[in-house]
Give the backbone structure.
Amino acid sequence: MTDITDIKIFDTTLRDGEQSPGVNLNKEEKLEIAKQLERLGVDVIEAGFPASSEGDFRSVKLIADTITQSTVTALARTKKHDIDRAYEALKNTPNPRIHIFLATSPIHREFKLKMDKQQVIDTSVDMVKYSKTLFKEVEWSAEDASRTELPFLKEIIEAVIEAGATIINLPDTVGYTTPKEYGDMFKYISDNVSNIDQAILSTHCHNDLGMAVANSIAGIENGATQIECSINGIGERAGNAALEEIAVALHIRGDFYPYKTSLNLQEIKRSSDIVAKLTGMPVQPNKAIIGRNAYAHEAGIHQDGMLKNAKTYEIISPALVGVSADSANTLFLGKHSGRHAFKDKVKSFKVELNDEELKEAFNSFKTLTDHKKEVTDDDIYSIIMEIKTDASNISRYVLENFEVNYEQDGQTKASILIMTPDQSQVTHEVTGSGSVEALYKAIQEVVAESTNLLDYQISSVGGGKDALAESRVQLKINNHQFSGRGTAQDVLAASANAYINAVNRYLMSEQSAKTIERAKA
Ligand code: KIV
Ligand code: ZN
């Protein structure tokens, strides 16, 4: 019988994932994701890069102060200041780990670091030794490992293990490698590094050529026992290896792969939904495992086969990853449902709402039941997620009313009534060439911040002709990129809410930056 090897799942959604263009999560959103990752059962949560900003420091600290089951780690350059900041942020978590990195490839050494091989070794060794005075678990990453000369990689790995590193991560930083090459690198390191038994090896793959998952699996086939990955595969550029694809591939092909993870696969869909909603990065419909179409069968022959025996065309049962076949259309609560039933349903989503948030969610639900006959789980979930994002006592904009009228000359007139952060009510009217355009122009002219629409999307949540509309936007606000989302029964209301939500998210981040400044002064 083949031995089954335990593979540790290191999730970097909150660090590499948060480096995705246009994504900026506030600390409450990061904590929400971290709690879900803990429910999913990931072994390690990379919570952020504390030295990169005060905001990141606070988010990592909040996560470290809250999470008890998973190891919490934070990224640091090979600099004492970064390591000290990571220690300060992580010191209250029961299982802290530092993750330090330095590039090793010739191109990075020559052009970026301007260091020779010996300097790269000395710096890494010194900083691993320093980290070891503060942390028991020290992960060292050879940035751009897959483009590094193998003998040099062997030499530096032996040196950092000797200095105390307990995890060696070999990233394919630029997503350039192939499964065979990446696997061979791990084999070479496993076979040639004399003290490799004192550390574990880890993969970290980017998806520039669409091979991140295949490369990660090649890594574990050749000695790695930790995989770094992210929910929905989000991350720098084309992203990282997708956690859900790796987890389900190892499970479904357990006949072929002698590996197991300790993930709770039924939490995959929920994790994907939370990350997609909070980052504003929707999942493509044909995405493996969690895409909307992943379990949809269109061709007549396929449908016929499915009816006779689902295994004819379905290798993964949707229930395995928490997708219930008809969850989107399940009648959930109706007009006559009370607060108690609503609270129970919120609990079943495992998202925590305080009394104030619960009251707001219940009111939104009641308003929805006035317009929508069947309120589904997806509808309720959207309401909760929106409230979670708006949950803060910051002064913000509130769209109190709007109207859109179509004029005879083909123009559209939008009138809005907005409550501004200083609590004054402002009405404004503009014309534009379409309803969304006119509405956005009106909002843009009222808000004090300079805003510019970069991306706009509209889709439906839940099933049926009275499904909720969900809008997502990307705005450039005072030169920062912020995403926003809004849901409503009406497409225009959802669109307006999304715009306002992005501006409020910007205000929130500005206000927390000011609080930090004040605290530092
Ligand atoms: O891709 C990469 O090399 C990284 C390191 C910082 C681990 O993200
Ligand atoms: Zn990376």
